[in-house]
Amino acid sequence: MRQVLTLGLLGTGVIGGGWAARALHCGVDVIAADIQPEMENSIHEAVARAIPSLEALTAGIPMPPRGKLTFTTEPEVMAAAADFIQENVPENIETKRKALGAIARATGPDVIISSSTSGFMPSEIQEGLWHPERFVVGHPFNPVYLCPLVEVVGGERTSQAAKDSAAEFYRSIGMHALLVRREVPGHIADRLQEAMWREILHALNDDIATTSELDESIVYGFGLRLPIMGMNQICMMAGGEGGARHYLKQFAPSLDWPWSHLKAPALTDEIIDRFVQGTADQAAGRSIRELENIRDECLVAIQRVLAKHDVGAGRTLNAFEKRAKKRVERA
Ligand SMILES: NC(=O)c1ccc[n+]([C@@H]2O[C@H](COP(=O)([O-])OP(=O)(O)OC[C@H]3O[C@@H](n4cnc5c(N)ncnc54)[C@H](O)[C@@H]3O)[C@@H](O)[C@H]2O)c1
Fold first, then answer.
1. Would you tell me which of 76, 90, 151, 163 could form a disulfide with 139, CB atoms 3.0–4.6 Å apart?
2. What keywords are assigned to this protein (predicted)?
């Protein structure tokens, strides 16, 4: 597969903008395509907003000169110029198939095409695509410029080489590529997020808690531990000296109690109102932009602390630093 000097983006909304900032900061040129001409301004603004956080995150790491950003409303023009394409159009199977079908033949067959889809399986999207073996899912997390995880998933017709090359490209822009063994709807992380999301909707529906109380139950407790070790290792520690086996024995009976629901409740107007009003109360007049600034400053600070202990996303940052120093030594 090709060396990635130019990243092509198909769709430049929330996720496309995040990919652009991350790649540009890592010295990769970006050609971004969106059918809405007004997205040109929007992607430049998104990149300008993200760069200070990226600079703070990578302070002390020798970074290459920033890449160059260009924009087009013609996806084929983007496809002809790109060494790797990341698709970020809305989460609709027909929209994705149509948009990818339109650009595939404008690329070389050695150009990897990756989809940011949150839930579709790669086999569903690659059906009918020209050279489907180079198609993967590369599912990122918002904000893409600060969250290092990308789930790399292959479909029935994806080659191992495409999965490996996609993972290698993502590592080169500072990400943690998690190779998902088998395609399933929602990949891995969104399944976990959805399980929590379902319970939140039930709690709102049953009037058990407000959105604020639900968020308190996360951020002051189990959520605070998660960036360090994840759920499973934390549970092992909850078993004390008895470890994982003791933990499972202790909590096994509760698995039979009706603590949680499997099916989500119907999304009624009442739940939607509770959610919308609750989260607006929590924002307490702060704009999305102000909330994003708080989120991003904390994401940078947390990752720099984790790096000191070489755990979680801090480990990814340390690996990226090593790589950057090697590149400088070789130059
Ligand atoms: N928002 C998130 O938190 C998040 C996280 C991970 C993955 N994703 C996935 O990323 C993808 C994009 O999500 P988003 O939140 O950025 O959406 P978005 O609505 O913010 O942006 C989509 C963009 O695609 C453009 N578009 C639509 N059709 C197009 C076409 N045919 N060619 C080129 N551009 C086209 C639209 O004009 C728009 O600018 C979805 O598949 C979503 O599931 C989203």
1. 151
2. Oxidoreductase
